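Quick one: ACY2 Aspartoacylase from Struthidea cinerea, structure tokens please.
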Amino acid sequence: GVEVGPQPQGVARADVLDKMRKIVKHGLDFVQLFNEGKEFPPCTVEVFKIMEKVDYPRNKNGEITAIIHPKLQDQDWQPLKNGDPLFLTLDGEVIPYQGNCTVYPTFINEAAYYEKKQAFVKTEKIKLTAKHLR
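--- reply ---
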């Protein structure tokens, strides 16, 4: 599967559709070249591995008590370091990220994930190496 985003539910965006077309075309080109016998050299690629899903701060009744901090909004795949602003309470208090390593949040403040109690997903950047392929 291919997921290209972020984009709001029910919205068709030309730029996102163009990205989706390009990645599907690359995938089909690879299959064609592989089927024609092309050899591919070893390579290394950076990817993001899911670590955990992070919920919004909530009170004892399960109600959200803070929102995504403006500095984090729309910063999917960007590094989040210890002490960086994470949430903002309705009283204006900043809740910083408290972690022992840099993470790369994604699916930040996605409407589709509110009901799943997910403010964002923490990922880590890792390198994968593919061997020679023929």
